[in-house]
Design goal:
The complex is a heterotrimer.
Chain A lengths: L1 H28 L6 H18 L4 H30 L4 H22 L13 E4 L3 E4 H23 L1 H11 L1 H6 L4 H23 L10 H15 L4 H22 L6 H15 L11
Chain B lengths: L1 H29 L3 H24 L7 H17 L5 H23 L4 H21 L18 E3 L2 E4 L8 H25 L1 H11 L1 H6 L4 H27 L9 H14 L6 H15 L7 H15 L5 H12 L1
Antiparallel strand pairs in B: 1-2
Chain C lengths: L4 E10 L2 E11 L4 E5 L6 H8 L7 E6 L2 E2 L5 H7 L1 E3 L12 H7 L9 H6 L2 H20 L15 H14 L4 E5 L7 H16 L3 E5 L3 H7 L2 E6 L2 E6 L1 H5 L2 H9 L8
The chains are: A mainly alpha, B mainly alpha, C alpha/beta.
């Protein structure tokens, strides 16, 4: 039991971080970022390069990853999304663009890093063992703590800085924010950079545990979509709740259902269907239409 | 009006002639037998894309067609290998099973709109892959292999389709079957869209509230359309399995679902034959880029993005602006 | 005889907010009844409950003695209670004529499959719809713009098209949601004429409106809402002299012309 709770926390903290980035981009630009998983993978490979290959300290690698992904995100927003959003008449256009970007990032990662599974040396050795009731390697604990710290940092940023407040105003009501003098272009770019950075950071954290490979992008995006649907799209608290809920469901599923084959996700999806038929806007989302 | 009809007839005749006569002849002359496989794939993929297009037509972005192609494929494969049914019987059964699943899933999710519906259907694709990995009957990651080729189909002693394993050239046979299915599918789609049924679908696409205020049972219509869409997905998937004689959980996955959607979008969402055109363009584009080896994906995706930058409203947006010009 | 439409003790709450409290009134056959009130008085919410676009928190709506609240909107429309929308809601990328053709869904005899296979019933339907659509367009003076794409139409025409769509469903009672909003005097008077014509053709009209001069000119009876509650009911004359009404309107910020 204790083990399941700890596993849920560990999974939930990473998931929440992934969902945060996705929901931020969605809230600001009404774009469903299909390339979110690819950004996660890219983050993993950048950390792998700086920490695993070049031998810099892990924390330097994480910082490098954050900066790289923020730049990549900003460039994508500036050169791709901005012109398309300005000129397209249907919301599908941005989705297709996002899909194209997912393919492009896949291609770039394939060319630069190859298709092999990559791993890095452990950041911490040893296993925490409490009377065989909770067994958790130290590096996982560290990753979990770092993830929770990042989430806390992100929330603090959104609550207490001027930029964060502007972003929130912008997400709540684009038109009103524009009238109040928020520079829409600038904040779209900052928001996209932040979202990409969060995705990349999780990739960087998890490369130390699961390693990274090209095929991880798609499944990561899918999980992020599920969390956002559980919590409600475009709401920060919803993303965090969605992340921890999915983490918990997965941990329970692994513990209880493993002997029946891996039908955890089928069950999660079925419950999601039932849930959405009662609450199509998710836990914390606003009702629409 | 009359000349328009004659033009249409001529167009259809040219199309049928080139599909059933000219292409086989050209392939025989050039000796590029591999084109049969490409073209058969295009025909089958465009059937599945037609389903996606139909859900676009009621205003829903469907990224779940990969799931239904996969389910259809497995239904056919299991019925053929485990129950020993004739493939030709499993083909409609696969479609119907998918339609049934679509009704079950559609009841809750068709209430969602826009991005939300897109997200759920995308998740559905991934979930169906994981399910096929986990279920005992689907044989996990190893998949179902060495599925026998379709047998003969005869009614009252009259052989309609010969046994494929007896044929010298089953590639040609599959090509014909796929093209016949495609022609039936698109003729049906054309009929549907141009009947009152299609009118009602458009009313849904433009304004669901208004549609329900004039008495349209929008929930029912959405379910019917989604079921038809998934039926087509299942048929496409089942045919693919017959050709490749194998199916794995990874046979249809998220990228396939996205490609079905891309096909529709590139072909144009306002035009029934759009999915066919889009599938042909994308699939051939992809195959042609094969020569470029590891740069294939890079160039393909760059082209896609470039296209979105230049024509953010789809390939046929050029066509439509021209059409309007002619009318005025 | 029973009234055509009965609203009985209808209440709607959104969370802690009460949009309508205990509203009751009757609509008689072939009259024009207007529901008026200052902004935020709960008129539109009431409309949505009558047509089942919203469920009631408590209370019921009866049409010809049959309960119609808390059903599906399309079922209410099938019984003959049809609404138009506040915004100019039409099928934007269809022509005027196509809009009215689609809207005749309730008169259809054939099934979906029937239309697909082109059965006899379906072919007759299609023929009939086209004719009826032309009749309705002519009736409302829209025949000039029959083949225009609806999104290109000016506002006055859109409103009339909205009414045409409503009429196409062959309603017993037509609910018009602010049919005069955003119109100048001439357009308003033109539309007032249309609404009268609709009533004279045998359709009962219930309308929600803000424009006092139009309401006074057109209505047989008026129901006044304020803060979600009914404060008065009567003929235009009675309403004009009702102190509660005057207070409600003067007390609120928008002092509308006509009182």
């Amino acid at each position: 039991m204790e083990q399941v709770i700890v596993n849920a926390l560990y999974l939930g903290s990473q998931y929440a971080m992934i969902a945060l980035g996705l929901t931020l981009i969605f809230a600001l630009m009404n774009v469903l970022n299909f390339a979110h998983g690819q950004m996660y993978v890219l983050g993993g490979f950048v950390t792998y390069t700086i920490y695993g290959r070049l031998g810099f300290p892990f924390i330097v690698a994480l910082l490098g990853t954050a900066v790289t992904l923020a730049i990549v995100g900003a460039l994508i927003e500036y050169f791709l999304f901005r012109p398309v959003i300005r000129r397209s008449v249907r919301e599908e256009s941005t989705m297709l663009l996002a899909a194209g970007i997912a393919f492009l990032l896949d291609a770039v990662i394939l060319l630069v890093f190859g298709e092999k599974q990559r791993g890095v040396p452990k950041i911490l050795d040893g296993v925490f063992n409490w009377d065989f009731r909770i067994i958790l390697p130290y590096d996982r604990i560290l990753v979990c703590v770092l993830a929770i710290m990042s989430i806390a940092g992100f929330i603090a940023f959104m609550q207490f800085t001027k930029t964060g407040r502007a972003l929130r105003a912008f997400a709540q009501d684009r038109v009103a924010a524009e009238l109040m003098g928020v520079n829409v272009d600038r904040y779209s770019m900052i928001g996209f950079a932040l979202g990409a950075m969060l995705a990349g950071l999780v990739g960087g954290l998890l490369v130390t545990i699961t390693g990274v490979n090209l095929g991880m992008g798609g499944p990561v995006s899918i999980k992020a979509f599920m969390m956002v649907m559980i919590g409600g799209a475009g709401v920060i608290s919803g993303a965090i709740a969605g992340g921890f809920i999915l983490g918990a469901l997965e941990a329970v599923g692994l513990a209880v259902l493993s002997q029946y084959g891996d039908i955890t996700y089928l069950l999660i999806f079925a419950s999601l269907m039932v849930f959405l038929s009662f609450r199509p806007q998710g836990l914390m989302g606003k009702p629409w239409g | 009006m009359n000349t328009f009809k004659i033009n249409q007839l001529i167009g259809v005749a040219i199309f049928l002639f080139s599909v059933f006569v000219a292409v086989p002849y050209a392939i025989a002359a050039s000796g590029r037998w591999d084109f049969y496989y490409t073209l058969t794939s295009v025909a089958l993929l465009s059937i599945a894309s037609a389903g996606v297009w139909l859900t676009f037509y009621i205003g829903r972005i469907n990224i779940g067609q990969g799931a239904f192609a996969l389910i259809g494929g497995y239904v056919s494969a299991i019925l053929v290998t485990k129950a020993g049914l004739s493939f030709w019987l499993t083909l409609p059964l696969a479609g119907l099973f998918c339609a049934f699943i679509a009704v079950l899933i559609g009841l809750p999710i068709l209430r969602l709109r826009g991005v939300y519906f897109a997200m759920v259907t995308l998740v559905l694709t991934e979930v169906s892959r994981l399910t096929m990995l986990a279920l005992p009957i689907t044989n996990g990651a190893k998949g179902i292999v060495s599925i026998p080729l379709p047998g003969a189909l005869s009614i009252f002693g009259l052989t309609l389709i010969p046994d494929f394993s007896m044929l010298k050239n089953d590639k040609l046979a599959f090509y014909y079957v796929a093209c016949v299915l495609m022609v039936i599918c698109f003729a049906g789609m054309y009929r549907l869209v141009n009947s009152r049924f299609g009118h009602l679908c458009r009313s849904l696409q433009q304004n669901e509230e208004l549609a329900s205020s004039i008495g349209v049972n929008i929930a029912y219509l959405r379910i019917v359309v989604f079921a038809i869409s998934s039926f087509l997905g299942g048929i496409g998937g089942a045919m693919f399995v017959a050709i490749s004689q194998s199916i794995y959980p990874s046979s249809f996955q998220v990228s396939d679902s996205i490609n079905f959607m891309l096909n529709c979008f590139l072909g144009g969402l306002g035009y029934v034959f759009g999915p066919m055109l889009g599938t042909l363009t994308l699939y051939f584009g992809w195959s042609l880029l094969f020569e470029l080896g590891k740069y294939q994906l890079l160039i393909y995706s760059s082209l896609l993005i470039f296209l979105m930058l230049v024509l953010p409203n789809g390939l046929l947006s050029i066509r439509f602006s021209k059409m309007k010009g002619v009318q005025k | 005889m029973n009234p055509l439409l009965q609203v009985k003790n209808v209440t709607k709450k959104f969370g802690g907010l009460t949009a309508n409290r205990d509203v009751s009134f009757d609509v008689e056959e072939k009259e024009i009844l207007s529901v008026i009130g200052p902004n935020g008085a709960g008129k539109s919410t009431l409309f949505k409950m009558i047509t089942s676009f919203l469920s009631t928190t408590s209370g019921e709506v009866f049409f010809k003695g049959e309960k119609i609240s808390n059903l599906s909107p399309h079922l209410v429309a099938r019984k003959g209670v049809v609404r138009t929308f506040q915004e100019t809601t039409i099928f934007k990328s269809m022509t005027t004529h196509e809009n009215v053709i689609v809207a005749q869904h309730l008169r259809a005899k054939a099934t979906l499959a029937g239309y697909f296979f082109g059965t006899k019933a379906a072919r007759e339907d299609v023929k009939k719809f086209s004719g009826t659509a032309d009749e309705i367009l002519e009736f409302l003076g829209l025949d000039d713009i029959r083949d225009e794409i609806a999104s290109n139409l000016p506002q006055g025409h859109l409103r009339a098209l909205g009414i045409a769509i409503g009429l196409a469903t062959n309603p017993t009672i037509l609910l018009l949601d602010e049919p005069f909003a955003g119109m100048n005097h001439d357009e308003t008077m033109h539309t007032v004429g249309l609404v009268r014509k609709v009533r004279d053709s045998g359709v009962t009209v219930l309308l929600v409106e803000h424009d006092m001069s139009a309401v006074m000119a057109i209505s047989d009876r008026i129901v006044v809402l304020n803060f979600g509650e009914k404060i008065a009911e009567g003929t235009p004359k009675e309403i004009q002299n009702n102190e509660k009404v005057i207070e409600a309107y003067l007390g609120s910020e928008d002092i509308t012309i006509g009182i």
